[in-house]
Records
---
Amino acid sequence: MSPLDLDSRLRTIVGAGAKRLETARGFTTVRDMLDFLPRTYLDPARPTAFSHLPHGEDVVVVGTVRSATTRTMRTRRGRILVVDLEDDSGGGTLQLTFFKPFGHQDRLVPGARVVASGQIGTYGRQLQLTHPDYAVLDAGKGSTSGGWLLGGLVPVYPATPKLSPIVHGDLLDLVLHALTELPDPLPEEVRTEHGLPGLLEAYRLVHRPQTTAEHRRGRWRLKFQEAFVIQAALAQARLASDAVPAVPREPVEGGLVDALLERLPFELTHGQHVVLGELRSDLARPVPMHRLLQGEVGSGKTVLALLAMLAVVDAGGQAALLAPTEVLAAQHHRAITAMLGPIAEGGMLGGMEGGTRVALLTGSQSAAERRANLLAAASGEAGIVVGTHALIQEHVQLAELGLVVVDEQHRFGVEQRDALRAKADAAPHVLVMTATPIPRTVAMTVYGDMTTSTLRELPRGRQPITTHVVTGDKPRWLERTWQRVAEEARGGGQVYVVCPRIGEEDDPDLPGADTVGPGGPTAPGQPGQPGGGADERPGAQGSTGPGEGEEVGQAGEGPQLHGVHQVARALRALPSTAALRIEVLHGRMSGEEKDAVMRAFAAGAVDVLVSTTVIEVGVDVADATTMVVLDADRFGISQLHQLRGRVGRGGRPGLCLLVTQGGSGEPGAVERLDQVASTTDGFELARLDLETRREGDVLGASQSGGRSGLRFLRLARDEELIVAAHEAAWATVEADPDLAGHPALRRELARLDAERAAFLERG
Ligand code: ADP
Ligand code: MG
């Protein structure tokens, strides 16, 4: 018989119990069982005084039976067994009650030591457990159950009504005893260097610790391994992509890069110069660049991307710029064309000699327009091609694709990168830009196969943004908000009003349209649509992606969230704002419509733009001075920070008002708004965001390379560990790229791949 390992079926070890584990917990393998870690530990040496047991919670308690009585019930037929259990401090009793005494009364005799678990209830003032699971610990009647509870700490697992914790513990015991060793993915020298226990030892420490130090040590090791495996995968991916040659793009004197630098109406900041140097030297190498450029909105990433693209064009290649939405693609196209001026009019009258062309490819173009652009791209006449991410899924031929710039990573997954690579003969260089400041642990875990550049300073002349939180229980303030909007607009400023949902054109009016907002339509009038109507989509809390995720889900009760149509209609009716030019923008409009509205807003022909978060990333309107975010508590910290980066981009200071109906969101939601209002440091906010978000949100499905989430690691807390695992893993992979000497690690990596593939298949 081959030795047991993590992939062994539970049924080969625990027999009939396997069925229960599968039904109750979904466990089928040893790994499933062992990776399910205790939620906490009880210390029998320091027992919980029963008087402090939390009502309604699932508990595991240890105590001694003081008395047990069976009596006839008054209110219904039958007999009841009442057992008084005393805690070890002698200070409190807990009643165990059984409506069918049979079988229990012989075992629960005075003096018996008992472990019991169940949900704490009360009867009168007496705490009790009704029909608890229990085990008698004293050797007494030859009980085999619950023996693992003796000595050491008592592990407590997340509860399920379908499986008694005592049975769970008994089955786990069988598994732990059946295993004699486990292949260890961590190389021995790494374990030695970091003082880590072996894998099986770690599981024993976590599930059967004698002391707190022991389970911490076990858990540390499991986290280390998780980080190590991810890092090893990233290191391998990086080595693999380094192994595919790219065409080196040497800088060209007096080329288009120089022409643009001369043309720019400003000097690059020091930070921009540094990054430009990094980009140019990466591009000149025969291995593909994989660089992540992060910098706040307005820090000047786009200019750098353009210079990098021109460097590639100078060297005979083409570059593609991919944006997450059509609005952004169109904006990039406009901005780039304007910045380039005659440089982008190659071959045209008045254009620069040796200049190039910029093609735009979007889904909403007319067939003729599209054909012309496709032709320009395919012939190589257009050195730069701008489009949405869809560009790479389509059959777009690029004659000589040398660089792909991806604006806003959020929606850009591994598989898309692969698709891109497949479009060129040699691997293109890749530059990813993101405006979301990324905490170090996330960068290492999610973008660990890339080199990171960061723009920390904003170009001079950027104006400060002031942020205020407006709570809905102060209607006066809200009135003031709309007056302020009107004042801004009259003074030549432009205003964004951001709503969490689109809504329908015939959504009910906001009551008292003279105070749009809080105190808005309440649920009782519309019992049929608690979720905010037909357009509700799963919550995008913390998501920063536009498009599909533009709407925020409404969780259960609470005031209905503001819809774009509703708010626009109300503003058009409100005396102070009625005279303003108000438009709406959201993802259900066609690309053409959206683009037309954005153009009008950018040209100053619209005063107030009521929209969803489609405006979130990258949109640049110099005269936008004010942003009002309605139901701001529904948005994540980083998302709000990005949103407000839209204002104050011209010569005038920005104002951001975060409006909340208060208390309707999840706990801590309003505190988050105060945090956003208190600082403009994006890195600090990203760190806060990380602490309040679930790991799955942080990684996002595609960003984590398909992994649906982390098992043990906490990116907000485990920085030291992740850094150590990163170094160890990269060293291991560099020394042995195929991991020929590390079969167990290789198997873990294959598992990661399989998980990713399964994930992608599910969509
Ligand atoms: P990002 O892409 O990082 O949001 P952009 O590249 O769009 O930032 O730059 C924001 C604005 O600042 C643009 O209008 C751009 O022309 C301008 N800009 C970029 N770099 C500088 C600079 N060094 N000095 C002054 N203005 C700059
Ligand atoms: Mg930008």
Note: The two ends are 38 Å apart (CA to CA).
---
Amino acid sequence: MNYQIKSYEQYQKDYAASVADPQGFWASVAEQFVWRKKWDTVLQWDFLKPDVQWFINGKLNITENCLDRHLAALGDRPAIIWEPNGTDEPHRVLTYAQLHDYVCRFAAVLRNSGVKKGDRICIYMGMVPELPVAMLACARIGAIHSVIFGGFSAQSIADRLQDAGSEFVITCDGAYRGPKDIPLKNTIDDALAACPAVKRVIVYQRTHCPVSMIKGRDVWWHEELQAVSESNLPAEEMDAEDPLFILYTSGSTGKPKGVVHSTAGYMVYATYSFVNVFQVQPGDIHFCTADIGWITGHTYIVYGVLCAGGTSLMYEGIPTYPDAGRLWDIVDKHQATILYTAPTALRSLMAHGLQPLAGKSLSSLRVLGTVGEPINEEAWHWYDDHIGKNRCPIVDTWWQTETGGIMLSNIAGITPAKPGYATLPLPGIQPVLVDEQGTLIYGNDVSGNLCIRFPWPSIVRTTYGDHERCRTNYFAAYEGLYFTGDGCYRDENGMYRITGRVDDVLNVSGHRIGTAEVENAINMHTGVLESAVVGYLHDLKGQGIYAYIIMQSMPDDAAHTQADILQTITRVIGAIARPDKVQFVHGLPKTRSGKIMRRILRKIAEGETDNLGDTSTLLDPGVVEEIMQGKV
Ligand code: WTA
């Protein structure tokens, strides 16, 4: 990997080169991958449409880069080490040779089931090795996977299946998560009642819980696999810009949108960012605690790690099961060298004190990382002192589902860290700050909305089935710029600190949730007239969800009505979207034109009632007083 940055000087040199000649820079990185045919043109772009294409007319298959290319030198090296939820079950190791074989055979199963290039395959599984196998098998034959996080409800799955027009589903009977057995297949069955287009469901048997298998539609993974013997299924030749996957994510309006990533650009940037940010060395064991249902798992458990020939350590369960020392046991047991986790996980482990760390060595660790939300200084120092023992660099990586890979981050041990700061852009990334009017804010010690002014290889290509939505969401706010939705501060040394979303997207325990989505779910509940949802500072989750609800008539038994409404939200979206606080109100603060003033509601939720700002434009200032008095 000739593109690994080895010194601060090289970082500066590579960064400068990537801005002066982006095409030349990325071509020299892309040269180091396996292509069936090289590209004609490196980049063509227009942010107004938007239309971004990288490595035009290049032909490749990403699984040849993840698997086949490593067979000769690394065939016996672990590609995936899997640690089960329960401590009494043995772990599993899949070497590159075994993973290659498994992927080829499952790809043959998919092909025999009628899956064709370009088909969208919905994957709803727990964190078992068969999940990356399913993803790679799709990629092998050119099918587009859409992984849905195991915490989403049947209704959410149905929405995503319909939006993507999926005819195939891959799932598990159930999933183990901590003390719970989650009946995934049951949830799929509920979803499929609304999705008659689905003609095949392949079920991997994990928990052996009872499942309903529908004749002609549902088949068992292990039985299908027995029927094929192809251990070297040829990979489909894909165009550089062919979609690799869809991943649904929340925005500020309406339903979640399907972010589409391309094959070549995503591959190049996922691998480049992995190798550089974590300063990956041969023999590293990379432990990313994210769920593969989110972008972090896609890029830094599956594609980036495997393309780089690394070893991905994946864990089925949760950090606190069977006790709050589990992650540290896993690190010691498998001698993990890199640990990549979320601030919310660190905060929840911190709350258990230092006892769970007793007797854990953690001496194998070399690099620590965080992702998903701003990290508070207390959590940063706890991570540094107690996990890294002040000898492991911590990389604070800022990025998004739409960016495909890490955008702003220090480079482990090479560029400086600063607690709470994602610090500097990776080569190829050109961040800018703008004010509300879109005017660029120059200089240092300034704040603004974070935009990116030049394409990078893994930028979102479209939102599935609705390109206009991609334009309005990301490229319309500020002409000629990609808008991230995040606010940001650039300090006196030019280092970036993400201050949080400036749109109506919440970040709850590192999960993105749109306030509009939660409001829509609440409004579906009987008796609800209107609702407004805001985020507030939460010690463990980063942000909590606060819902203000107007009912047709004030409930007699508020606790009961609240529980019912939470149940509706769980049904419509999933348990992750349940508000932490619910307040029943008679009215909401609105402007004369009928717009809810969320700024005021946020302040009340955060208990900052001394300074509510200008309330003179309110239709009825009296409602504010009532809401303040009833605050929960
Ligand atoms: C937030 C997750 C501060 C940010 C990879 C972004 C962060 C959203 C960081 C994307 C970080 C992610 N510091 N905030 N290091 N990383 N975020 O799409 O608000 O699930 O816009 O991607 O998470 O969330 P997503």
Note: The chain has a mean pLDDT of 96.
